[in-house]
Design goal:
Layout (H helix, E strand, L loop, with lengths): L1 H31 L15 H9 L13 E11 L3 H7 E2 L4 E2 L9 H4 L4 E6 L21 H10 L3 E3 L9 H14 L3 E3 L11 E5 L2 E9 L11 H7 L5 H13 L4 E7 L10 H13 L3 E5 L7 E6 L2 E6 L4 E3 L4 H4 L6 H4 L4 E11 L6 E17 L5 E7 H4 L7 H15 L6
């Protein structure tokens, strides 16, 4: 009887614990499921996978994100020449070396802001074994001239100009070699027949195509064979120009830039033949023309072709030289003409490529007027310095005569910008 009651008590206890455990399981399930489908936290989704997809569908994907716009800053300037007084001023008789860095000291910080900087290198670097280092009429500068140009920040040097054959075939070849050794690109002359005459550079995803041609070589065509002349120097040839433009377009160039050595020396107005050629090149697909040779500033123009903006600088004047009133008047030029050879300009162009449409256009054009100073050191040697006018017009570094000449230069240069 006692054992029976004891077993009965055990069953009652076991049933009680089972009931308590069941209640606990039900309570946990109730909490986990949010107090039922219509509980405090709202309806529990029947198909959570579909609901999650719907909630995240509005988040931006990599494909939907808009690509940022890209800009490339191009700076171009005119003729870089080294006359005898410049060579003498840069020479160190103790080390028997040259240093031209002083000529670029005031402009270096500006040039180095460009993504691509271009100038016309007027002359050759043939070494001094056959030709002496000399200026006009047969230019041959020391290699250190290229060092200074590179240090200033230039990337491309147009070498197709009327002085490119001054030291004949060997000079053409060595000039190209020395430019390339310093990490710059020659444009318009070649060591041998090239696969293409067009230089294409991809800068931050914008493809820039460059071509350079010269209208003349000072009658020195005969120093090369016809085959070498055709292969090594880009002399004006409309058929070749059109081929080069087509090549650029077929190779996905976003912008086509022509660097042209043309026009009439010391003329501040472009010749009709310049306008005619510019029109043909623009219609064929060129976007920008940078001109040199006259040694003075000629007008710039912003033009519209089928809704696209085109730009031409007919002549950017001298960037660095010894040409000025004091040196040219004795040779027959009037002061009125020769004073303009002291003037130069940097054309500062921003190219923009839209991230969404990939449309490429000229976004902005600025002008940086330049003036070349000539002074004398304590030892009597001349020094030539390129000054950005607006940065130095009030500088204590320059005397009143220099500032007066700067003021004249600025006014005359800006009068030519965007001229009709």
């Amino acid at each position: 009887m006692y054992r029976k009651n004891r077993r009965r008590k055990k069953r009652i206890i076991l049933m009680s614990w089972s009931f308590i455990i069941l209640l606990g399981v039900l309570a946990v399930s109730f909490v986990v499921n949010g107090f039922g489908k219509e509980g405090k936290n709202g309806p529990v989704p029947e198909e959570p996978g579909e609901e999650i997809t719907e909630e995240t569908s509005n988040l931006p994907s990599e494909q939907d994100e808009k690509e940022p716009d890209t800009t490339v800053r191009i700076m171009a300037t005119g003729d870089i020449m080294f006359h005898p007084s410049q060579l003498d001023g840069a020479y160190d008789p103790e080390t028997k070396t040259y240093n031209f860095n002083n000529s670029f000291k005031a402009i270096k910080d500006i040039i180095q802001q460009a993504d691509i900087a271009i100038a016309n290198f007027e002359g050759t670097t043939a070494g001094d074994k056959v030709y002496a280092y000399q200026g006009y009429p047969l230019f041959n500068a020391p290699d250190e001239a290229l060092d200074a140009i590179k240090n200033a920040g230039f990337d491309i040097l147009a070498t197709a100009n009327n002085h490119c054959l001054d030291t004949r075939k060997a000079g053409v070849i060595r000039t190209i070699e020395q430019i390339k050794i310093r990490g710059m690109e020659p444009l318009g002359t070649f060591k041998e027949k090239p696969e293409t005459r067009v230089l294409i550079k991809d800068v931050k995803g914008i493809r820039l195509a460059f071509l350079a041609y010269t209208e003349m070589v000072n009658g020195l065509e005969s120093v090369l064979s016809p085959e070498d002349l055709d292969a090594m120097v880009n002399i004006f040839n409309e058929a070749k120009m059109m081929e080069d433009i087509e090549y650029a377009k077929n190779n996905d160039a976003d912008v086509i830039i022509a660097v042209l050595h043309w026009g009439d020396e010391y003329s501040r107005v472009q010749a009709e033949r310049q306008e005619i050629l510019a029109d043909k090149l623009f219609k064929a697909g060129v976007d920008i023309i940078f001109g040199s040779h006259p040694h003075v500033i000629q007008p710039t123009q912003t033009l519209e072709y089928d809704g696209e903006t085109k730009f031409v600088a007919y002549s950017m004047g001298n960037f660095l030289s010894n040409q000025r009133v004091e040196t040219l008047v004795p040779y027959g030029l009037t002061e009125h003409v020769s004073k303009y050879t002291e003037d130069g300009i940097i054309i500062d162009i921003v190219i923009e490529k839209k991230g969404d449409t990939k449309e490429v256009s000229i976004k902005n054009i600025n002008y940086i007027p330049l003036w070349v100073y000539k002074g004398f050191k304590e030892n009597g040697a001349a020094e030539h310095v390129v000054y950005p006018i607006m940065d130095y017009i009030e500088s204590a570094e320059l005397d009143e005569d220099s500032k007066a000449r700067m003021n004249r230069s600025y006014a005359d240069t800006m009068a030519q910008m965007n001229s009709e």
